[in-house]
Amino acid sequence: MSRKDNKKIIKLPRSGGSNVGKVVFFIILFVYIVFAVYSFSNKTTVSYYEVEEGSIVREHIYKGIILRDELIVPSERSGYLNYYVASGKKVAVGSAVYSVDESGTLNEYLQTHADELQGFSDSDLSSIHRSLEDHAKQAQDISFSSTYSLASDLEAMVAEYKNLSILTSMGEELRAEGITLNEFRASSSGMLSYVVDGYEDLTAADIEASLFDESSYSRQMINNGELTAAGDPAYKLITSDDWQIVFQLSDQDLADFGDSTSLRLDLSDTGITTTAGFETIIGKDGNSYGVLSLSGYLPYFYNDRFISFELIQNDVSGLKIPEKSITTKKFYVIPSELLASDDKGNSGFYKEVITETGTASEFSLADIYNNDGEYCYIECTDSSELKPGDVIVSRDDSSERYMINEQKPLEGVYCINKGYTEFKRIERLDSSNGYCIIARSTSYGLSVYDHIVLDASVVGDGQLLYR
User: Fold this and answer.
1) What are phi and psi of 400, to 5 degrees?
2) CA atoms of 227 and 100, how far apart (whole Å)
3) How many Å separate Cα 234 from the centre of its chain?
C-alpha cells in the first residue's frame, strides 16, 4: 500500500461520554418495576362462588313443660318400701307393685342371708346392661339429675329381681322366720314412676311463666328400702300414652306458626323426629303458649318434667348463595305499562324527541334488570340510550308521559361469567348461617353453576376481573 493511500484513513476520536440509550432503558425499567409493585400491593383478591341448588331448614330450640295423665298412689301402710317392678315399666291391673315391711326385719334377714339369694339371670343382667347403654347414648352433657334418675332406676330394677327371687324361692323361709310382707297390687294399669314433683295435676289452663323457672323446681325420688308413712306417695302411674308439651311463644313465633295445626319437632337427645298436633292457648297469666300433642315416646321422658326440643320449619329450597355475595344497587324505574318492543322483538321504551315540526317518539333499547309488574328497573349510563330526564311516552296514547327520575333499590349479586362484574338481581326466600336461599328461574337473575363474586364489597359494577 502506498503512502498516498494511507493518508485517506480518518481516525475517529473515542467518546468517553455516557450511553444515552442505556440510561433511558433503565429509567423505563425502574418506572415499570415501581408500577408493578404498586399495582400488586394494591390488588384486590377476588374469590368467586359457584351457584348451587340447596335448602335451609330453620330449627327453633324451645324448652317446654310435659303434661301427662298421672296418678299418685299413696302407701297403704307405714314401713320400709320394697318394689317388685322397675321404674318405666308398665303394669296391669292386679300386678304386684310393692310391699311394706312394717317391722324392718326383712332387711336384717337379707343382710344375714345374702348368700342364700339366687343370682341374677342372664335376662336380668341384659336388662340392666341395656339401661346403662341407653343412658350413655342420651347423655350429651353432664347432668346430675339424669344420673340420679339412672341410679334410682337401677336400684328399682335390682330390687325387682331381688324381691321376685325372695317371693319365689324364700317365701316359706320368710314365713318360718315370722316375716310377713304386706304386698300391694296396682288398681289401675299404666307406666310406673318413682318420681313426684307436685306438677301431676297441672293442666294447660294452669300454665304461667313462673312454672318455667327450673331453679325453683324440685322433685322427690322414692327409693327402694325407704321408710315411709301411710298416705305418703308410694309410686306414680302414668295412665295414658297421650301427652303434651306446653311452651312459651314470642310475638315472632305467633307470626311464624301461630295459625298452624301441626308442627314437626325433634325430641332432644333421642334422635326422634315426629309431627305433633299444635294449638295456641292463653295461660293463667294472660301470655300466649303453644301446646304440642303427642302419643307414644313416653318411655324416654317418664321421669322428666322439662324437655328441650327443636321445631323444624321453613324447609326452603332454591339456589344457595353466601350472604356476603349480596349487594344492593339503585336503578331508575319506568312504569311497566310503558314497556314496548320493536319489530325485532327487542325490549325498550318510546322516548319523546323534539323535531323541527314539533315532538315525536322514537324507540330506545333498554337493559331491564327487573319487571315487578309495577315498574321496570333500568340502568342509565353514558352508553345507554335512555338518560335521566328523558320523557317516556305510550306508543298508543302520546298523552301518557313519564319522566325518568325516580330510583329504587334491587338486591343482587355480581356475576362474573363474562370476565367482568355484571349485576344480577335475586329474590330472597330465606337465610341462615351465612347463606341465603334465592328463587330459581328468576327473570334477569341467576342460574345453577353461575359464578358470582364471593364478597360483593370488594368489587364495583362492570369491573374487569382476572381469576
Assistant:
1) -85, 115
2) 9
3) 43
CA–CA distance, 184 with 412 (Å, rounded to integer): 73
Which of 316, 349, 382 lies at the terminal end of a domain, its last residue? Answer: 316
Beta strands (DSSP E) in 182-305 are 182-185, 190-193, 195-196, 220-221, 227-228, 233-248, 262-267, 272-282, 288-295
- What cell numbers appear for 248 in the block? 312459651
pTM greater than 0.90 (yes/no): no
Residue span of the structural domain in which 439 resides: 326-458
> Which of these three, 294, 316, 338, is where a domain ends?
316
For residues 411 and 291, is the Cβ–Cβ distance under 8 A? no
Instruction: Pull the grid cell for residue 65.
Output: 313443660
Distance of alpha carbon 450 from alpha carbon 205, whole angstroms: 55
**How far are the Cα atoms of 1, 6, 19 from residue 11, in angstroms, in the given order?**
18, 11, 21
275 and 419 both lie in a single domain: no
pLDDT 10s digits, 211-259:
999 889 999 988 877 889 999 999 999 999 999 999 999 998 998 889 9
